[in-house]
Amino acid sequence: MTYIDGFVIAVPKANRQKFIDHAEHADPIFVEMGAIRVIECWADDVPAGEHTDFRKAVKAAEDEDVVFSWIEWPDKATRDAGMAKMMAPDFVDPRMDPVTNPMPFDGKRMIFGGFVPVVALGK
């Protein structure tokens, strides 16, 4: 079964197009490393919760929106190998260079993790 890396970040609303440009530039690297697909989703219907919610999870300010993203891998082994290659000290790819393709969000507030699907319906 597939393996999923999930991410939630706060992105300034003014940086929406910068975020899209950044993702379109860098996300193909994950596919080159073996990912099946990469999905980046901009908040559309993200309600405020009484105790917790997506905005609180990433400490989103009023001028920020939440982005929910995931990378689908064929399996954990492919993910581990791809991520190890990307995190290696000798990995150089200008698409990941923070000077030429800076992250248009505060990466310190990103939440992320790897997940094993336990139910999968549809295509």
Structure description:
The chain is of the alpha+beta class. 26% of the residues lie in helices and 25% in strands. The protein contains 4 helices and 4 strands, in the order E-H-H-E-H-E-H-E. It has helices spanning 16-26, 28-32, 54-57, 76-87; strands at 3-12, 37-42, 64-73, 111-115. The radius of gyration is 15 Å and the shape is globular. The chain starts with a strand and ends in an 8-residue tail after the last strand.
What are the key terms here?
single chain, 123 residues, alpha+beta, Alpha-Beta Plaits, 4 strands, 26% helix, globular
| Main sheet characteristics | 4 strands, antiparallel
Radius of gyration: 15 Å
Strand order of the largest sheet: 2-3-1-4
Low-confidence stretches: none
Strand content: 25-35%
The secondary-structure element order is EHHEHEHE
Q: What is the CATH topology classification name?
A: Alpha-Beta Plaits
The best one-word shape is: globular
CATH architecture classification name: 2-Layer Sandwich
Query: What's the rounded overall pLDDT mean?
Result: 94
The number of helical runs is 4
Taken together, the total number of domains comes to 1
The tally of beta strands, per DSSP, is: 4
Structural class: alpha+beta
Helical amount: 25-40%
What's the level 1 CATH class?
Answer: Alpha Beta
In whole angstroms, the N-to-C terminal distance is 13 Å
